[in-house]
Design brief:
about 0% strand; 10 helices; about 65% helix; 2 strands
Amino acid sequence: MNESKQPDRVEIIRDWWARNIAARDRPAARALAARLRRADIVECLCHAEVHDLSRKLGLRDPARLAALVRVLAHVRDHKPRALAARMGDSDGSALRFERMVRATGDELPDQVLRVLPMIENTCDVGWLGRDMLDWSDKTRARWCFQYFDDRNESRPTEDVT
């Protein structure tokens, strides 16, 4: 019997974003992204593409699903760098980062939407989506290491001898 490997959440989210939103040169992708960016929960649920993502993720919570697709609609480019690492690369505010990692699940989408323009609306969409769905202390700790590790690596070391 040949069992195929089930794709994980990261792959599902990346594939969905690439197929439905990423190609902004396509009118359908541009229109869907624009509608989702402005949509409330019910308006998000009025799109077959959103239900396709819901089925693939096994996600039936309308508020979490709507928050996820609204945020994904703001991401313009996928780069294999986590959002927190991209923030660490930028001259973004450490206070803004702290507010974001302290956010509750309901507050997180708004905090992420405030940060995305600071990082040119670019990050790894799969990792961002997975982390939004699995927002926990473990995820927050990982984001802190990503943020501060990259901030320290991007700065020259000083010789204090």
